[in-house]
């Protein structure tokens, strides 16, 4: 168990999250991908906190904040999706292209 | 007071210029009520003033050393251009000739342009010509000679284009302007190139410089060839001779002035430049070659014409060719004499045929005949003019020509032969014209042909009187060659060529046994000369074609390549804007992808220098 593996795992998770964020057509899956990104960040924070700052563990405090904010963000995001769904009867990301040239 | 008139001789061009300006208010658009005639009268008074002034001045300068006047025209850092005037008996004599002939031509125009409304334009242009020629004769500076030559070129354009509603007039004026302009422009090259070499444009100083100058032969050749190009165009020499033929579309009184004096302006510059031209033997050779070719070919062309004005216009080219020969062989005095006798004789000839054309409408020689019994005055004037033009003793042309011939015969036998041939051809041509107009039987166009108005006949007879008096004047001025020094064989050969030419023409055209119109065998040869060696076609397929093609190419290049490159920049911007807007896909996710890619690339760019530390 090393810091590098931890970071690489977090980076891989971040990459998967980005992939899902960019390619998903379902808006809820986009939100889920964002959650993956947060989790990748949290893994990083935890890894650094455990390996580099075992005494202070400031990273763990940050992680708690991130989880809190992620929950709040998910709530707001789902509310936005619901608001859009009520107007447009769809959550397909490719239908939300009002700014197209 | 004794030199008052010669010191104020520079007023002579000013008189004419004032006349030119005063005539303009009688243009039909300005004074609408009274008709244009006062314009002519004012100009005649001004010309007469100039004539009298010159007459009074010539006695001041007679047998006196030349006087010089100089006005500063322009002074910049290292260049001073001064308007130098030279006052000698020769110059004032030329002024007399110019003002006198212009007065005659203007009187003639009073009669000839009786039915014309454009007097203001006509007379002010004639006055402009007079002013130009008087200043050309007076000025002693090559630079100002060039200035005046260009003004005269513009004047020629306007005067030939007098009746501009005729299409041939428009093309004729165009050709006259462009042809003379080309010569003048090459002359300008010579004038500009001369200043660094000689350091002056003053003719007197140029002559002094030329005596001691040591020029590289190539430089001298190029310089002198450029200097003769201007007179080449002005004097209607080959190959720049077509304009004079087409200039015959202009009004007849202007033709009098043009064919006698204006073509002589080039010769005047040439005579003035003779000391410089002598620096380059090649140029002298070119001059005599061009002069000989023009003289002989124009003599032949004149014979083949059926238009009476054009037949005389080629004789003008031929005589200017003789002047080229004279200057080319260093006989400036002979050239001046020839200009004098030629101008008077030619003016009588043109006035005579002008009177004929005025009352017979046609200019076609084949439509004429049998006018002698009804137009005796015109006939006699024509005869005197013709006889004074060629070597017919004892009239004026004879003396100039024998002087030239006796100078040529010992050292240039070939040129002497040319002179003989030209004299014979000219005699043939003027005799042919005389016999066709005055001899034979009346034809439909000439059945009723009254003598012209007094205003047409009077200047003609007065000029005839002058022509008759030229030998006496020459002997008074000691300009006649001494009879003892003349080679009598040369003289008799010249007379024989006159007699043969004139006799042959009279025999052919007065003989009813020979069918008219005469067909030469082969016909192609006759056409060759009748159509002026097809010069118009030659111009068209050579210089006009090349210039036209090049200008079309350049216009095409400008329109499509130069403009195209600039338009391409605009178009590229438009198309790139049109194309790149599709990057804004409207998909939030694609924006996110762009942001991520941007961050990733920025991160790579920032970290790139650190990659080497990884190991």
From TrEMBL, chain B:
InterPro entries, sorted: ND/Mrp_TM, NU5C-like, NU5C2, Proton_antipo_N
| Pfam families, alphabetized | Proton_antipo_M (PF00361), Proton_antipo_N (PF00662)
Residue ranges constituting the NADH-Ubiquinone oxidoreductase (complex I) chain 5 N-terminal domain according to the UniProt record: 73-123
Q: Where are the transmembrane segments?
A: 6-27, 39-59, 79-105, 117-138, 144-164, 185-204, 219-244, 256-277, 283-304, 311-328, 334-358, 379-402, 414-431, 452-474, 494-510, 531-554, 560-580, 592-611
Q: Does the keyword Transmembrane helix apply?
A: yes
Any one cellular-component term (Gene Ontology): membrane
Q: What does this protein do?
A: NDH-1 shuttles electrons from NAD(P)H, via FMN and iron-sulfur (Fe-S) centers, to quinones in the respiratory chain. The immediate electron acceptor for the enzyme in this species is believed to be plastoquinone. Couples the redox reaction to proton translocation (for every two electrons transferred, four hydrogen ions are translocated across the cytoplasmic membrane), and thus conserves the redox energy in a proton gradient.
| Protein's UniProt name | NAD(P)H dehydrogenase, subunit NdhF3 family
- Organism source for this protein? Gloeothece verrucosa (strain PCC 7822)
Mind giving the lineage of the organism this protein is from?
Bacteria, Bacillati, Cyanobacteriota, Cyanophyceae, Oscillatoriophycideae
């Amino acid at each position: 168990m090393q810091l590098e593996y931890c970071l690489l795992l977090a980076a891989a998770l971040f990459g998967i999250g980005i992939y899902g964020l960019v390619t998903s057509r379902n808006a809820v899956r986009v939100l889920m991908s964002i959650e993956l990104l947060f989790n990748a960040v949290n893994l990083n924070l935890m890894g650094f906190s455990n390996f580099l700052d075992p005494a202070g563990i400031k990273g763990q405090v940050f992680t708690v904040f991130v989880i809190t904010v992620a929950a709040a963000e998910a709530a707001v995001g789902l509310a936005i999706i619901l608001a859009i769904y009520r107007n447009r009867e769809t959550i397909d990301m490719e239908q939300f292209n009002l700014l197209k040239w | 007071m004794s030199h008052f008139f010669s010191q104020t001789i520079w007023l002579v061009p000013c008189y004419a210029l004032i006349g030119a300006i005063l005539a303009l208010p009688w243009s039909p658009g300005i004074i609408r009520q009274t008709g244009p005639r006062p314009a002519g009268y004012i100009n005649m008074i001004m010309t007469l003033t100039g004539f009298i002034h010159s007459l009074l001045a010539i006695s001041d300068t007679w047998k006196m050393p030349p006087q010089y006047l100089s006005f500063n025209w322009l002074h910049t850092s290292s260049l001073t251009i001064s308007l130098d005037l030279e006052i000698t008996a020769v110059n004032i004599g030329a002024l007399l000739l110019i003002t006198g002939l212009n007065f005659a031509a203007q009187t003639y125009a009073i009669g000839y342009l009786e039915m014309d409304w454009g007097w203001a334009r006509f007379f002010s242009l004639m006055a402009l010509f007079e002013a130009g020629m008087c200043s050309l004769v007076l000025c002693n500076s090559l630079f100002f000679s060039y200035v005046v030559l260009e003004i005269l070129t513009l004047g020629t354009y306007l005067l030939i284009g007098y009746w501009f509603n005729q299409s041939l007039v428009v093309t004729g004026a165009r050709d006259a302007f462009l042809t003379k302009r080309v010569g003048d422009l090459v002359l300008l090259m010579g004038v500009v190139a001369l200043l660094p070499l000689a350091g002056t444009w003053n003719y007197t100083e140029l002559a002094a410089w030329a005596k001691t100058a040591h020029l590289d032969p190539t430089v001298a050749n190029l310089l002198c060839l450029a200097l003769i190009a201007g007179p080449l165009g002005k004097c209607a020499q080959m190959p720049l001779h077509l304009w004079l033929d087409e200039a015959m579309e202009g009004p007849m009184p202007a033709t009098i002035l043009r064919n006698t004096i204006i073509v002589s302006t080039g010769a005047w510059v040439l005579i003035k430049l003779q000391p410089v031209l002598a620096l380059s033997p090649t140029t002298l050779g070119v001059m005599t070659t061009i002069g000989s070719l023009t003289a002989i070919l124009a003599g032949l062309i004149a014979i083949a014409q059926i238009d009476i004005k054009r037949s005389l216009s080629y004789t003008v080219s031929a005589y200017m060719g003789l002047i080229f020969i004279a200057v080319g062989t260093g006989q400036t005095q002979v050239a001046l004499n020839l200009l004098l006798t030629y101008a008077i004789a030619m003016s009588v000839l043109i006035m005579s045929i002008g009177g004929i054309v005025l009352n017979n409408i046609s200019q076609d020689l084949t439509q004429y005949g049998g006018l002698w019994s009804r137009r005796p005055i015109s006939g006699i004037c024509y005869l005197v003019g013709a006889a004074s033009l060629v070597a017919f003793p004892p009239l004026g042309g004879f003396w100039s020509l024998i002087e030239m011939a006796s100078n040529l015969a010992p050292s240039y036998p070939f040129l002497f032969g040319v002179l003989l041939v030209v004299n014979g051809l000219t005699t043939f041509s003027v005799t042919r014209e005389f016999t066709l107009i005055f001899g034979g039987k009346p034809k439909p166009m000439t059945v009723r042909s009254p003598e012209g108005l007094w205003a047409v006949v009077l200047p003609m007879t007065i000029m005839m009187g002058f022509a008759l008096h030229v030998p006496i004047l020459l002997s008074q001025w000691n300009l006649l060659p001494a009879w003892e020094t003349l080679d009598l064989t040369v003289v008799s050969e010249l007379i024989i060529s006159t007699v043969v030419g004139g006799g042959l023409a009279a025999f052919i055209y007065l003989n009813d046994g020979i069918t008219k119109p005469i067909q030469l065998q082969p016909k192609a040869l006759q056409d060759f000369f009748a159509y002026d060696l097809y010069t118009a076609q030659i111009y068209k397929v050579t210089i006009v074609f090349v210039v036209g093609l090049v200008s079309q190419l350049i216009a095409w290049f400008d329109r499509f390549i130069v403009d195209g490159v600039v338009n391409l920049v605009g178009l590229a911007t438009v198309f790139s804007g049109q194309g790149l807007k599709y990057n804004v896909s409207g998909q939030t996710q694609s924006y996110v992808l762009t942001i991520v890619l941007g961050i990733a690339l920025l991160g790579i760019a920032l970290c790139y220098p650190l990659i080497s530390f990884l190991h």
